[in-house]
Amino acid sequence: MHNLSPHYKALVIGATGAIGGAFVTALRNDKNCSHVEVLSRATHPLFDLTDEASIEKALIPIKNNSPFELIIDATGALTMDDQGPEKSLQSIHAANLSKSLLINCIGPTVLLKNLVPCLSRNKCIYAKLSARVGSISDNKLGGWYSYRASKAAFNMVLQTAGIEHKRKNPNSIFVALQPGTVASILTRPFVDQSSAMRPEDSVEQMLTAMDLLEPISGAHFIDYKGNKIAW
């Protein structure tokens, strides 16, 4: 990252996932990054995205290392309790819909609420892994109700937070990132892994795309190549 302050500090949440881990490695190899803080289900205190109290407890030591110029939330889930995305309206179950919203929207919103005050007053970026299927206007195929709804819901949260924080720090950037089809545990049931991108390649392109973003009122929604996605 070249457009953040020299010796910037970064935080990666979901650091044990394929993409989160690739972000950690890339940032640790960036000579301009002085420190990379990580948070995952493997860190201590235990971190549970479905439990607000555990999120707040896990963030206590992290907040002591703030401010951060770059925060990346790489959390998320597509399959809930071994149930994949719904193909039809009749396949929706309230429990799976509720859990998808909890993991993909409510938990990340609690993170956002607690971490926005940890952003630097200089140019800074809050990035959240999203998905193209979270775009309402780009929905051409239907299906995947719970996942689409949860991603679209958090996109709205991020957009709203970006508008609010712009008044406090005009140099802040909020962005929802579509990482492309990446080889990972999340995509394994749905995609031939040999044809999917390596996490390292996706992350390299996302970091380049973020580096080119300018502050706006609200949030950006882009793919890994930096192309704009309609909300």
Question: What key attributes describe this structure?
Answer:
231 residues, alpha/beta, Rossmann fold, six-stranded parallel sheet, 5 helices, 6 strands
3D architecture notes:
With 231 residues, the chain is α/β, with parallel strands linked by helices. It has a single domain (8-223), classed as Rossmann fold, CATH 3.40.50.720. It has helices spanning 18-28, 52-63, 94-115, 145-168, 199-211; strands at residues 8-13, 33-39, 70-73, 124-129, 172-178, 219-223. Strands 2-1-3-4-5-6 form a 6-stranded parallel β-sheet, with helices on both faces. The longest helix is centred in the C-terminal third of the chain and has 24 residues, at 145-168. The chain is globular. The model has no long low-confidence stretch (mean pLDDT 92).
Principal-axes geometry comes out as globular
Q: Provide the CATH superfamily.
A: NAD(P)-binding Rossmann-like Domain
Largest beta-sheet characterization: 6 strands, parallel
Count of extended strands: 6
In what order do the strands lie side by side in the largest sheet?
Answer: 2-1-3-4-5-6
Order of helices and strands: EHEHEHEHEHE
What is the class in the CATH system? Alpha Beta
Structural class label: alpha/beta
In short:
By secondary structure, this protein is of the alpha/beta class. Helices cover 35% and strands 15% of the residues. A 6-stranded parallel beta sheet has the order 2-1-3-4-5-6, with helices on both faces.
